[in-house]
Amino acid sequence: MLTFDNRFLRDLPGDPNPRNHSRQVHGAFWSRVAPAPVAAPALIAHSPEVAALLGLSDAEIRSPAMVEALAGNRLLPGMETYATAYAGHQFGNWAGQLGDGRAILLGEAVTQRGPNAGERFELQLKGAGPTPYSRRADGRAVLRSSIREFLCSEAMHHLGVPTTRALSLVLTGDQVERDMFYDGNAELEPGAIVCRVAPSFLRFGHFELFASRGESALLRQLLDYTITHHFPHIAAAHAGEGERIVAWYTDVCERTARLTAQWMRVGFVHGVMNTDNMSILGLTIDYGPYGWVDNFDPGWTPNTTDAQGKRYAFGRQPGIAQWNLARLGDALATLGDPSPEVLVDALGAFERTYSREVNRIFRDKFGLRDDAGHAEDASDNEAVIDAAFTLLVQHEIDMTIFFRALATAVTVDDLRDAFYSEAEWHAARNAWQAWFDRYATVVARQHATPATRTDRATRMNAVNPKYVLRNYLAQQLIDAAHAGDYAPISELLDVMRRPYDEQPGRERFAEKRPDWARTKAGCSMLSCSS
Ligand code: AMP
Ligand code: MG
Fold this sequence. Notes:
With about 525 residues, this protein is of the alpha+beta class. The chain has helices at about 5-10, 50-55, 60, 65-70, 145-160, 205-210, 215-230, 230-235, 240-265, 315-335, 340-365, 375-390, 400-405, 420-445, 450-460, 470-480, 485-495, and strands at about 30, 40-45, 80-85, 85-90, 95, 105-110, 120-125, 165-180, 185-200, 270, 290.
């Protein structure tokens, strides 16, 4: 049983117009909207961990009534459905009102039992039909993108990266028309709905919307609501409104910095870092044309819509996160207090937190000693890491395999498996040999005894995953699902539950991208069509 307490609806004003047609919604945070029914809901995967978080048993999640609810076909007691209003900057340009165009909230579930009793989670159906914010689109989602969102939400959680979660993946039984590469070749695809779960789905864009319209009272109200309920430590520590807003903004900057550093750690590329896809809780949100870097390439983006500009490429993510935070700062500056100067100053928290985190993360990934207070270690660490980055980008080298191999590498040849081409390995071997010798000398000095060497390998393996949701693995599941076989989804989810463990017998899920996947749609190229 789920128990709902729909605070967002209760405490914040809504749209008085009950009709569901695309429009600009003014003076409101949400619009009531009913999910559009689907033909034949079937639960094809779920996350037992998220069910447990909500206090749901396995039998409850599989019950016909719950599956109907997770497809938007019926409401369970306490559920109230609505879509929220937000705006955003997309690809660097102001886009005006956007909003939940295909995400419908079911309400806020308050966990009643188990270790998470008392915790509150918003439940949101993605793909449940049109809302007042759908503009000209259909409010639906296709199976391929729903599989990708379901799996990656959970894989990220198990990797230790902050993220929205996914409770369920339901096939709707309806077909959805999509033109995957926007080239006039529209096709019918199976439709699906993911139930996403997070303490809040509020985005930077929610705050930008009211600022852009000069609706200061509503912006203040949203800030007050957000700080009171999601940042209670700030509400408690600061009396003045301006002061609270600066403290809140600083906190969002720090969370976003930690999140971005974690993406860099695991090789995740979000793909569409528009401000409407940035969570104020610092969660990874909106899994669209995301991808995982196979070879370590800071210039790589999976998003074909961004193939020219590469705005959201792997290595640009920290800079873009900072740019997005600046847009959030602009929105807050419309209030007059805090002043724009104070907000620009507060944005400095991003860079400070990001450099601290990313330095620590890469030091740990390379298995180098904490250099706080050791000048010699600090300069060695920096030199050895910088030299590795220079070499890593010169050839196709698998990021995940490289870092995993480094934990136990005795000679440079132990890194060979990370190379995509034999010829490149031979061409690069001498340069890598020189790097490895230097690295090994630093490591030997920092880790003098066998005990600290073993400890080092264990700690490296705890930050360098063996298993990530490689793009081609997800695509293989999608192909199987289109042929009616859904079992591989739960099998891969099971692998992703323990990404840092060796998992003997499952090595095939840790293999580098096969050649056929290099340029295949869905493996290295994804569009926003979903
Ligand atoms: P995204 O790029 O997926 O983050 O989406 C940007 C905006 O477009 C958001 O407001 C979405 O709700 C909306 N949107 C995307 N796909 C659809 C769809 N199929 N139907 C309605 N709205 C959509
Ligand atoms: Mg979005």
